[in-house]
Amino acid sequence: MQFLEPLDSILGQRSKVKILRFLFDQPIELTGREISRKVGLSHLKTHQVLREFSQHGLTISKTIGKAILYKLNEDNMLGRDILKALFRAEKELVLKLTGLLTNRLRVFVESIVLYGDILQNGNGSNSDIEFLLIIRDDMNLKAVEQGLEYTQEEVKRTFGNSIMAKIWSISELRERYAQEDEFAMAILNSGKLIYGKELIDVIRSGHWSI
């Protein structure tokens, strides 16, 4: 293992970070080809990275027939004490964002759903964080708008991103669903619920007609 600034080498390329992130979430041994398919990198590039990780002691391997199986070395201090904490903290970013969004708004809303770039590519550093709020009725609209003003400032200060919220009442959500509104259907299919009821459950709850 390199002792002088090893993170420069280990985290110096996006391909290395992708493979390492995947391995920390992978409990079983996999071949280089399997890993390359999972992370979307070439077989050659994946093997180059895995060999370098082996030199740092981050991965261990064994040969079965013609196949070489790789997994994280759980005894490696660099991986166990430093990198694992980094990837854990990275995964908790969305949880912390969720906490900020729900803290002031949950009293007035039925559902909060993230959508857009944050779910597709992790969100660009200057991109808006987009989410849909379903409020119980229009009487809650002003309180939610005020809560969003405070939340906007806190999210900007904490994450560096702005938030962009769409606010629909339950009746508007149901109407858009009945009309097969393109935007509503996209959020139903690919949005990530972070608080409250699933949108389809909100739509189907109670007795209603359009």
What would a concise description of this structure say?
This protein is an alpha+beta fold and 210 residues long. It is built from 10 helices and 7 strands.
CATH overall fold name of the largest domain: Beta Polymerase, domain 2
Overall mean pLDDT stands at 86
Residue share in helix: 40-55%
CATH architecture descriptor text of the largest domain: 2-Layer Sandwich
So what's the CATH class of the largest domain?
A: Alpha Beta
**Strand-residue fraction?**
15-25%
Write down how many β-strands occur, each being a DSSP E stretch of 2 or more residues. Answer: 7
Commentary on this structure:
- The protein is an alpha+beta fold and 210 residues long.
- The chain folds into two domains: 6-75, Winged helix-like DNA-binding domain superfamily/Winged helix DNA-binding domain (Arc Repressor Mutant, subunit A, Orthogonal Bundle), CATH 1.10.10; 91-204, Beta Polymerase, domain 2 (2-Layer Sandwich), CATH 3.30.460.
- Helices cover 54% and strands 19% of the residues.
- The chain contains ten helices and seven strands.
- It has helices spanning 6-10, 14-24, 32-39, 43-56, 77-105, 117-120, 141-159, 170-178, 182-190, 199-204; strands at residues 30-31, 59-64, 67-72, 109-115, 129-135, 163-169, 192-196.
- A four-stranded mixed sheet has the order 6-5-4-7. The chain has a three-stranded antiparallel sheet with strand order 1-3-2.
- Strand 5 (129-135), helix 7 and strand 6 (163-169) form a beta-alpha-beta unit.
- Helix 2 packs across helix 3.
- The longest helix has 29 residues, at 77-105.
